[in-house]
């Protein structure tokens, strides 16, 4: 006589898990890990927030001097992350931000080490900024455009050097002086000067 007993639910579940493909189990583990990270996020966010407050404090101390340094030279402006952001905002008002975007793309391009990525990035930059009737075509002469096109056949970190230099010169001689005279930069320098004066009066 056979004795029937109900199967243990836990045993049934284990058998069910064993029957699942390995990829499903790996996904489940990955999901569990992600949930764990999410559960700990508030604490992590608090730590990040605290460190950001400290960084902002130090930035406020240096920002006044930094703003005034932008008028010393175009190089000084380009060295400053906040300076580049302010200049980019100004260029947007003149509908010429593609010049700075191209220059920044070239700077990023030079840091690429992989030859495969170098070639794909070079083509992408050329198609977006350099070729005739590109979506965000920069203002360079035909000769520079053709030299850059030829450089793409054996893309190296220097293939945009000439086009980048021409664009930089154009910004330095044309857009940069207008930026320094702009209302937005004048307001920033006034604020920076007043902060410097108030700091001196408190010491």
UniProtKB/TrEMBL annotation:
GO terms for biological process: negative regulation of signal transduction. SMART domains: RGS. Its main location: membrane. One of its GO terms (molecular function) is GTPase activator activity. It holds the Pfam family RGS. Residues 73-189 form the RGS domain. Keywords: GTPase activation, Lipoprotein, Membrane, Palmitate, Phosphoprotein, Signal transduction inhibitor. It is a lipid-anchor. Residues 181-196 have a biased composition (Polar residues). Residues 181-203 are annotated as: Disordered. PROSITE patterns: RGS. It is found in: Membrane. GO terms for cellular component: membrane. InterPro entries: RGS, RGS_sf, RGS_subdom1/3, RGS_subdomain_2. Regulates G protein-coupled receptor signaling cascades. Inhibits signal transduction by increasing the GTPase activity of G protein alpha subunits, thereby driving them into their inactive GDP-bound form. Plays an important role in the phototransduction cascade by regulating the lifetime and effective concentration of activated transducin alpha. May regulate extra and intracellular mitogenic signals. This is Regulator of G-protein signaling 16.
